[in-house]
Specification:
alpha/beta; 8 strands; binds pyridoxal-5'-phosphate
Length: 227
């Protein structure tokens, strides 16, 4: 079933868009099934859960951290994480830099923006992000590399609202690229779009889509992760 779902999603991707299979709460066996179909990018939102799965699975998987990240949990993912999508403060970026340096790594990161109308979603405003990028403390970091932006649209059936929020995020990417990342072509990524809205997100320019339930089925938070 995972195989059919995955192939279904892959067949709808626009050229240049990469699929992150969001495997949070799902067992290692489900990830293996997707892996056997060639999927290599997986997304998790809990540091310890990601660490346990990383230990049990093939080492050519690219692990994407997509959830709210606490500074004291960075150590669980720093040795191997390939992209952290959820940087929402200078303090967190400094914590990532410190852990990355212990492993001799430079960790790629995205700035997470609050683009939805819902209060519950995490992320910075454009002003906060610009303040971060202007901070002298940021300029000193050598073990992180910011490669783009991430955001979640309002959870609504109103497609115009969703489209406009995704358009806002793309505008932030463009503006920051011009003001802060001139001559740095790696700053280009836009991580936006989930199962119910990744079609709109791709039309608005996403480079990564994060799709979970359309591949692995609905999540049941009552079931243990490692079966
Ligand atoms: C869970 C999650 C997803 C995937 O959501 P689905 O609706 O299952 O596709 C994408 N992004 C983030 C940040 C998530 O937490």
């Amino acid at each position: 079933m995972v195989k059919d779902n995955l192939q279904g999603v892959l067949s709808t991707l626009r050229p240049g868009v990469r699929l992150i299979a969001v495997s949070k709460t799902k067992p290692v066996s489900a990830i293996r099934e997707a892996y056997e179909c060639g999927q290599r990018l997986f997304g998790e939102n809990k540091a310890q859960e990601m660490r346990e799965k990383h230990e049990q699975l093939p080492k050519d998987i690219e692990w994407h951290f997509i959830g709210h990240l606490q500074r004291n949990k960075v150590k669980y993912i720093a040795p191997y994480v390939s992209l952290i999508h959820s940087i929402d403060s200078l303090g967190l970026l400094e914590a990532v830099d410190k852990e990355a340096s212990k492993h001799g790594r430079v960790i790629d990161c995205l700035l997470q923006f609050h683009i939805a109308t819902e209060e519950t979603k995490f992320g910075m405003s454009l002003e906060e992000a610009e303040a971060l990028l202007r901070a002298p403390e940021y300029a000193r970091l050598e073990h992180v590399r910011i490669v783009g932006v991430m955001g979640m649209a309002t959870n609504t059936g109103d497609r115009d609202t969703v489209r406009s929020e995704f358009g806002t995020l793309r505008g932030y990417r463009d503006r920051l690229a011009e003001r802060f990342f001139a001559g740095r072509p790696e700053f280009k990524e836009i991580s936006m779009g989930m199962s119910h809205d990744y079609g709109i997100a791709m039309e608005e320019g996403s480079t990564y889509v994060r799709v979970g339930s359309s591949i692995f089925g609905e999540r049941d938070y009552g079931v243990p992760v490692n079966d």
